Predict the structure.
Amino acid sequence: MPIEHAFIDAEGAAANLAARIADVLAAAIATRGAAAIALSGGRSPKPVLAALALTPLDWDKVVVTLVDERWVAPDHADSNERLLRETLLTGAAAAARFVPMKNAAADAYAGQAAVEEAFTTLPWPLDIVLLGMGEDGHTASLFPQAKELADGLSSQARTIAVTPPAAPHQRLSLTASAILSARHIFLQIGGDAKKTVYDRALSDGPIEELPIRLALKQSATPVEVWISET
């Protein structure tokens, strides 16, 4: 079962999550001389990333990448890379090495092989994968009913190109195997709607119905979940 951290408000959850991430990264640097983290985009991680940027760490020993990315220009409003550059990779934290999930290829399918190759330079396994969850139960860009979902759940590659069935933009995403190989898997959710989906995901049912189950319904790397009421 997941390890749950419950908070009344999103601000308290974000501060606590940022501190937990910093502790894990610092321990990894002390033990292995380097640390690696894959982060999610969206609204919820913004305060986490902003708080983490202010944390004293040996940032030049940290490698940062993404859990998933929309196939848009890095300066596009929907770009997760842009979010990281504006919130986390600032000040002292700008010394971290960032490995993007978007390149100059015409689409995500054409660009996936080069990203896969770039990801060989990351220190695997990653120390932390920070997941989010949509109200449809997707995590990373592994969407219910996406034609690539079966491959995303079974592939031994680290990345996969995805066309979401409803959300805009092609995506590049970590596969289930890349996510589950991490030393620590964290999940951040907030609000009643997502809590309801999370509770459903803890019940029996196929991963294909609610892909977040790929993390929640395994015990090799217990998931820590930060839950806020707002």
Notes: The chain has one domain: 3-228.
